[in-house]
Amino acid sequence: MTSAFTAEIERETHDLYDRVRHVIPDVEWSVHAPLISAINQLKRERKALILVHNYMTPEIFHGVADYSGDSLGLAQFGARTEGDVIVMCGVHFMAETAKILSPEKTVLLPDLQAGCSLAASITGADVRALRARHPGLPVVTYVNTSAEVKAESDICCTSANAVQVVESLGVDKVIFIPDQFLGQYVASQTKVELVMWEGACEVHERFSGAELREFRSMHPGIHVMAHPECPDDVLQEADYVGSTSAMIDHVGKVHPKQVAMITECSMAGNVAVEFPDIEFIQPCNLCPHMKRITLPRILAALETLSPAIDVPADIAQRARLSLERMLAVGRSAARD
Ligand code: 13P
Ligand code: SF4
Fold this sequence. Notes:
CATH superfamily of the largest domain: NadA-like
Bound molecules: 1,3-dihydroxyacetonephosphate, iron/sulfur cluster
CATH topology of the largest domain: Rossmann fold
Radius of gyration: 20 Å
Strand order of the largest sheet: 2-1-3-4
């Protein structure tokens, strides 16, 4: 059971709260602080590392993370990390990726229902059918997919390195799955021809170019950044396109007065803690899958060492090859 917001916990979390107070109200902190304290204590006892995606809420992102980043950063960190247990604060495909890259570790996902509309859009059988329709073409697969789909692929990519991965193959044409919008973005940045799939992120597909134009007219001079899972008319309106971590780096470099991050809502709160002088303005959309991960569920996962991710050995072995080929390629720059 979690303790109450005692004077001792208030003292222990005082400096942390000082950093995050402008994105987390007082009344919420009294609920979060005892959970943060209990999680940080238990993770030391369990020799666990907490990996946190940029879309987690600020109390998770700033309160309990040992590492935070985008999908590529999480995969890279998961591949090289020490420790017995990884708690993935993200969605199912991220936990599966960590398990595939660190099979000897216990990988926990605090809510197994934290899925992804892209991962749900395609199966291993679909990939085999695509290969039969386009014989000889290599399959480049966005990491937002199941282990089974990765196992049927030649190489994975993330939003941070998709162009570089596609070009690394040295061919004129590839199968690119499953995000049609990331695919359209990659196609606009390379001469390689892409055969695409009709998957989409249920969060990013909801933005529109018209919405952004109207938004710009209300906030003249605002710096607009967008994730490449957004439709093309949104990306056309953006000043910068990049992965979640690329957007964070870009804010640090450009330091605009006002920023809109056209992506999941928690990003802006997490970044605002580092840049209190920058004004972060909506629009944003919530990812219902990411929001399944909460402090109480993280604590329960550490207490029970469950739910743990398991990937059948034959699938894991083939999926690992696709991931390792990607990790050998690395990270590319985003578009200004
Ligand atoms: P990033 O790899 O850019 O963090 O994106 C992951 C994701 O799920 C975006 O919706
Ligand atoms: Fe999947 Fe979109 Fe949620 Fe990312 S934001 S996990 S791509 S549904």
